Amino acid sequence: MDFFSNIPTHMDYKGQGRSEKLSRMIITLFGVVGLVWGYYIQQFSATVYVLGAGFLLASILTIPPWPMYRRKPLNWQKPRPPPREDGADTQSPKSKKKK
Amino acid sequence: MHSVFGRGNAMAAYTLSVLAGLTFCCFLSTVFLDYRTPATINTRQVVVKSIPDYSASREKNDLGYQSVLLLFSLIFVAILNCCTHLTHLFNWNVKQLFLYVTAEYQTPSNEFNQVVLWDKIILRGENAVIDLKNIHAKYYFWDDGNGLKGHKNVTLTLSWNIIPNAGLLPNVGAIGSHSFSFPPEYTTSRV
């Protein structure tokens, strides 16, 4: 089970942006090419099929969380050392206020 | 965009929007085309009969108008010659053509009469060269009275309705029509 739970399934923020941008570019490009091709052979169904091919390609490239969308992970701050006894007493009312 | 479903949903929505845009482009590319085309129509044999139209006068019968309508409804049989080339009308925004031949005439009781005599559906890819000789009218040419006997000016026109993938459903008239007159006497032969 450790093997499966260790498979990374996330994209980082930059990766999400890139995947969306890439999918829109692919679909738009296939749409434009399909329109020109369909007009050239005078068959609108060809346009729809080319757009469908673009959708499939974009699905394969941008829906699964490929490793290329995980190249810029966020640099989280280091976890702080656990607070001492005195500090815990002073901080506890603040956390209650937040709630 | 953080999950597979989110990305798939956004992509499907965007694809459908693009498809709508492409369909609109397809409509725009054909909306200004001129679909009129010449057609020649002729009539060869024109007769007029006087027979009761039971289908139309049942109701009138009940109302007591039967003497006029039962006895003097008119039927006509024309033999049409029709020739036109429609192949160039088909483009990527035309799925089928619905052709119909209309007779238009004026009678004392009605200023404007229109009767559809014949029609035909042509799908894209089928033979669109219409060259028909000696076909009979597909539908009865009833007048709701006795306005056809001896009528001097009945005009036949060919029109078509364009069924597109997207956009308007225009009715286009062919260039050219045919006018004929009915004989002044009823025929006695069976036609």
UniProtKB/TrEMBL annotation, chain A:
GO cellular component: signal peptidase complex
Keywords for this protein: Endoplasmic reticulum, Membrane, Transmembrane, Transmembrane helix
The keyword Magnesium is annotated on this UniProt entry: no
Subcellular location: Endoplasmic reticulum membrane
Chain intervals for the UniProt region annotation (Disordered): 74-99
Record Pfam families: SPC12
Coiled coil: none
Lipid bilayer topology: Multi-pass membrane protein
Membrane-spanning intervals of the chain: 21-40, 46-69
Family: Belongs to the SPCS1 family.
Biological role: Component of the signal peptidase complex (SPC) which catalyzes the cleavage of N-terminal signal sequences from nascent proteins as they are translocated into the lumen of the endoplasmic reticulum. Dispensable for SPC enzymatic activity.
Name under which the protein is recorded: Signal peptidase complex subunit 1
Organism: Frankliniella fusca
Automatic annotation (TrEMBL), chain B:
The keyword Endoplasmic reticulum belongs to this UniProt entry's keyword annotation: yes
Cellular component GO terms, alphabetical: signal peptidase complex
Compartments, record wording: Endoplasmic reticulum membrane
Chief location of this protein within or outside the cell: endoplasmic reticulum
InterPro entries: SPC3
Superkingdom as given in the UniProt entry: Eukaryota
Membrane topology, record value: Single-pass type II membrane protein
Signal sequence segment: none
Similarity annotation: Belongs to the SPCS3 family.
Function description: Essential component of the signal peptidase complex (SPC) which catalyzes the cleavage of N-terminal signal sequences from nascent proteins as they are translocated into the lumen of the endoplasmic reticulum. Essential for the SPC catalytic activity, possibly by stabilizing and positioning the active center of the complex close to the lumenal surface.
Name of the protein in question: Signal peptidase complex subunit 3
